[in-house]
Amino acid sequence: MKRVAVLMLGTIAYAWWASGVAPFTALAYVAVAVPAVFVVVTYASMGALSPRRLDVTRYYRARAGNAALKSTIPWLTVLTLAVSLEAAGLALGGRSHTVPTLSTTFDHLLTYHWSRWLVYVLWLGAGAWPLARLARRSREEAP
Amino acid sequence: MIGTICWLLLLGASIGVELFARVRTTSTTTLARTGSLLATRISARVLLVLLWAFVGLHLFARYTLPGH
User: Cβ(A28)–Cβ(B61) under 8 Å?
Assistant: First the structure.
């Protein structure tokens, strides 16, 4: 529990520092690459990127429960609409005020350091989430 | 402006679908279960990790101030 709290505080502090780094600099690329490499390496070390680890596939199948293609239609509809809107925004040049792309819409959230930090924390959290789930599964299955 | 409203409507629709899925568990699946269904395929797991890394790169390393 204490280790989790320290990790969370470290992540929040890292996000505060990294969200203050000027974009289009080498340091900004490194600041994004460090957590990205960490997540990919950790996810791979847990066997999630290996086709031979059928236990991971079984785990996700169990977590999916009764989900089937038919029951995901509402999500697929939302995704299709989002892709269409993004395509329309890109077709209009990407920075249209009438139909902005998703990233142009997000740009307004990234103007201030505090909001940029918040989005950075959410991004790190989204990357850490599957690692935490798989780590929890390993602990539960350990004898 | 119209586009921004459309994005907000899509956000609202996502929240609506999630809430509906939590109430009517048999007809619609939650986002977490949909993600797990996707993750049963290794190609989808690789794509999701790549998509996540791309979002970080795009938003934080290649971010431009509005109007610049």
Answer: yes
Q: What spatial distance separates the first Cα and last Cα of chain B, rounded to whole Å?
A: 19
ipTM of the complex: 0.87
Tokens 């249209």, residue located: A96
Which sequence spans correspond to the domains of chain A? 2-141
Q: Do residues A97 and B33 touch, judged by C-beta distance below 8 A?
A: no
Of B2, B14, B27, the CB nearest to A71: B27
Residue whose pair of structure tokens reads 């490194």 in the numeric block: A30
Task: Report yes or no: A108 at the B interface, CB cutoff 8 Å.
Answer: yes
* Non-local CB neighbours of A10 within 8 Å, separated by 6+ positions: none
pLDDT, one tens digit per residue, over A47-68 is: 888 888 888 889 999 988 888 8
Q: Give me the residue from A28, A64, A126 closest to B36, CB to CB.
A: A64
List chain A residues with CB under 8 Å of B62. Answer: 23-24
Contact: A107, B29; criterion CB under 8 Å:
no
B10-66 pLDDT tens trace: 999 999 999 999 987 778 899 999 999 999 999 999 999 999 999 999 888 887 655
Q: How far apart are CA B36 and CA B43, in angstroms?
A: 13
Q: How does residue B68 score in pLDDT terms, banded at 50, 70 and 90?
A: very low
Q: Which two tokens stand for residue B39?
A: 């993750």
